[in-house]
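Continuing the series of single-chain predictions for the mutant panel. This is the parent chain; the variants come on the following pages.
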Amino acid sequence: MSKFIPLISSSLTGPLGILHLPRLWQKVSLKATGQLHDDYPDIGAGYDSMVLGTLGIDADAFRSFVKENKPSYIECENWVVQNGDTSQPGIAKLNRQITQYHHNDNTRTEILAAAGLEDSAAIADAPNLNNLDDWTAFHKEVLSS
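Parent structure:
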C-alpha cells in the first residue's frame, strides 16, 4: 500500500476560514486508512494541536470521527461546527498565530538546505518553510526513487 506525504498547505482554509484544518483533515484521513507517510504524525504537537485546542475538540474524538465516518472535507467542517467552538475571535487569533509563527534558525536552515536553497530570512514563516519541506520530501520519495 502506498503511503502519502500530505501536500495541503497549513496556509489554506475551507469555508469556515480555519487555517490548517484542511491539512489536519487530510493527515488524519490518511492515517485512518493506513496511508499516511511514516514521517508525519496524524495529530502532532504543533499546528494540529493548536487547531483542535482552539476549537475545543479532543484529538481522540476527531480521530474517531474521521476513522469511523471517512468524511469529505465539508462533512468534517460540519462536524467541527457541531462539536467545537467556531467563534470568529478564536479563529482569527489562531490564524494569526499560524501565519506569524517562525521556526528557529536551525530548523529554517535545515529545511532550506534540504530544498537546495541558501539560508535566507526571506522565507522565514513556518507555513512556507513547511511547504518547502513537504515538497522536498515528496520529490525525494516519489520522483527521485
